[in-house]
Amino acid sequence: MNASAHTRIKFCGMTRADDIALACELGVDAIGLVFAQRSSRRLDIEQARALRDVVADGIDVVALFMDNEAAYVQRVIDEVRPTLLQFHGSEDEAFSEAFGVPYLKAVAMGGDVATDPLSRHARAVALLLDSHAAGGAGGTGHRFDWSRIPHDSGRAFLLAGGLHPDNVFEAVNTVHPWGVDVSSGIESAPGEKDTAKMRRFVQEVRRADSLPR
């Protein structure tokens, strides 16, 4: 048994302080705050600043952007103090690296998938493989075909898209990702996390982690 296995868990689209407090209690690794203009879970800076204060020490605060202007990204960094950035749009390496904050880069795995994007953003902490098609906003709640993930890319990645408590055990046990990212799969409504689903999601990831690899 690989006792050291630890799949990182990111709860994204957090909008309520109580949900963040529970996520921290459950031992997730990262909390995602959304600033993408097209998202129903988008926060303004004042809301995000208040939620950021709820996050326990040692848990990453991820600020998610999608083609936001550089000045706005910098303002979020200055006022919200995220420990990681996440870029979900057409941001290139120069833009993503310009802020001096570690970052994740989303890769669209829906539609026609090219392997080339997996070789970009070499300085990203990890890639986030999501089920949206190129140009889409992500957060669709649908999974993509996991067999399309290249096994020889050598890149750390978070698996996203359509994950929920009923399939995350299978996902971790099949794909062995560096981390998993969930939003709608633990919700009762957009931005409103469900306590029972949050607890069970974490339990299922840790159950998968307990198996031999």
TrEMBL record:
Top-level taxon: Bacteria
GO molecular function: phosphoribosylanthranilate isomerase activity
UniProt-listed CDD domains: PRAI
Keyword entries, A-Z: Amino-acid biosynthesis, Aromatic amino acid biosynthesis, Isomerase, Tryptophan biosynthesis
InterPro entries, A to Z: Aldolase_TIM, PRAI_dom, RibuloseP-bd_barrel, TrpF_fam
First and last residue of the signal peptide: none
EC number: 5.3.1.24
Pathway in which the depicted protein is active: Amino-acid biosynthesis; L-tryptophan biosynthesis; L-tryptophan from chorismate: step 3/5
Segments forming domain N-(5'phosphoribosyl) anthranilate isomerase (PRAI): 10-203
The family this protein is said to belong to: Belongs to the TrpF family.
Official protein name in the record: N-(5'-phosphoribosyl)anthranilate isomerase
Taxonomic source organism: Lysobacter soli
